[in-house]
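The records we work with from here on pair a chain with its fold. Each token is a code from a learned vocabulary of local backbone shapes. A record is reproduced here so that you can trace the correspondence yourselves:

_____
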Amino acid sequence: MSNVPSVYPYLASPSAGILLAAGQGSRYAAQRPGADKLLASLPQGPCVAVASARRLRAAVDSVVAVVRPGNAALAALLRAEDCRVIEADPAGEGMGTSLATAARHLLALPGTPRAVLVALADMPWIRHASMADVLDALQHAPMAAPSHRGQRGHPVGFRADLLPRLALLSADEGARRLLGQPGLRLVEVEDPGVLLDIDTPADLDRAG
């Protein structure tokens, strides 16, 4: 169960997380051929994707993780972290495709979650308090995201009524167009982790 209190009516039913873990990690692989950055070990112990999944799982009631088709090793690790693993639509590529695949999955469930946090699997240092703040901000707005020193970060929160729009995304569009429309509430946090991702092998040594 979530560690985030459900004190608002629209959060009374479970919250869900979407972990986007279907990226190619091309810049990382260019420096370390054949390596998957999401399976790389952090100095703290777990691999990048597992650390990200644990942080997201602690903030919401359930997590759907989207992986590339055929990535059995990553899928097994995420299932072990109590994530429901689905494969990205093989007909498309990019974050938008992964997000749309997850949104369609959530819409097909018997009980659609009322709040959704979308997190990236290569961002393992986001603090629990930042995720809780984003969920809490959804009482005031249909979309919310953390901001650190004036720069918007992750994860991004959506109320359930936006899931149909997320389900229509494609390719690398992601949610940028949606987030650029009125309704996004930014929450200032003292958490650099909302901006830090793993892009190259050198990034693994950042303090979380």
